Automatic annotation (TrEMBL):
Cytoplasm recorded as keyword: no
Pfam families on file: LMWPc
Taxonomy of the source species: Bacteria, Pseudomonadati, Pseudomonadota, Gammaproteobacteria, Chromatiales
Electron transport listed as a keyword: no
Keywords: Hydrolase, Protein phosphatase
Molecular function (Gene Ontology), one example: protein tyrosine phosphatase activity
Annotated coiled-coil segments of the chain: none
The enzyme's E.C. designation: 3.1.3.48
Record-given protein name: protein-tyrosine-phosphatase
Species of the source: Thioalkalivibrio versutus
């Protein structure tokens, strides 16, 4: 069976989408689904290509038991729409930027990540880059909830076996 491929997308791929990547990857592992679901992340802008996740994102992740040390930023490419099944954007600007490069024969579904955490009543994961540490705490709260909702959605739609 081919893997279900999930791509988390923000602007720089150093704050929000690496946090979503690390948390969702951990959820997949906890549910024994690492053979069935693959996770990656990318940014709509190329400012930070090759960089590690922001130290504040890594610190907040570490404090909750997630490891982001292995992640390096890359840019979202049109080819990603052919290779991934689900592309999740963190905010509306990311969604529009992704839509702009989506090829006509895209196979990926382009979705808003926070649609999977309706209990928060927030529509966008706010960009924490220019703010303080508390922004990263809030991003992590949103990301953990949306990761749970997304995994439930994917498990409902696909027949997945834990291994
Ligand atoms: P991210 O945050 O999109 O969550 O990775 C940002 C990172 C860098 C910049 C903006 C947002 N920047 O302007 O460099």
């Amino acid at each position: 069976m081919s893997k279900i491929r999930v791509l988390m997308v923000c602007l720089g791929n150093i704050c929000r989408s690496p946090m979503a990547h690390g948390v969702f990857e951990a959820r997949v592992r906890e549910h024994g689904l690492s053979e069935a679901i693959e996770v990656d992340s990318a940014g709509t802008a190329g400012y930070h290509v090759g960089a590690k996740a922001d130290s504040r994102a890594r610190q907040e992740a570490r404090s909750r038991g997630y490891d982001l040390e292995h992640l390096r930023a890359r840019r979202l490419e049109p080819e990603d729409f052919l290779e991934f099944d689900y592309i999740l954007t963190m905010d509306d600007a990311n969604y529009r930027n992704a839509e702009r490069i989506r090829p006509a024969d895209a196979r990926a579904e382009l979705l808003r990540f926070l649609d999977f955490a309706p209990q928060f009543g927030e529509h966008e994961v706010p960009d924490p880059y220019y703010g303080g540490d508390e922004g990263f705490v809030h991003v992590m709260d949103l990301v953990e909830a949306a990761a749970d909702g997304l995994l439930e959605h994917i498990r409902d739609r696909h027949t997945l076996k834990a291994s």
